[in-house]
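In this section we walk through a basic example: taking a raw amino acid sequence and producing a predicted 3D structure, encoded as discrete structure tokens. The instruction is simple. Fold the sequence below.
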Amino acid sequence: MKFHLEILLLIGLKSALKIAAENNIDNVIVPLFLTHILDSKMDHSWCVKRAEIVFKCIKGFLIEIGSTGTSTSKTFHFILPKSTSQATFQSISSLLPSIF
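The resulting token sequence is shown next.
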């Protein structure tokens, strides 16, 4: 059930990005964990893995729209819940160069 929910969240993210691209929206704010609240089950490793999945989904989307000949730049702002630890933030930040 949990895996199914994650797939639905990523499909929703991709749909939102597609709608933004179709409507010439160049600045997009993405809640990096696809939630605004961290609960006790969302530990450091869960947060890093979720961030990696979202980053890769967005990278795939950018590659996809790039192949259509669209040349406008897109800006993504990733937001995190306020309770995200500094260690988690640092780990997520270190993912960016390896994914993008």
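Looking at the output, two observations stand out. The chain is about 60% helix and 10% strand. The longest strand covers residues 27-31. In the next section we compare this with other chains.
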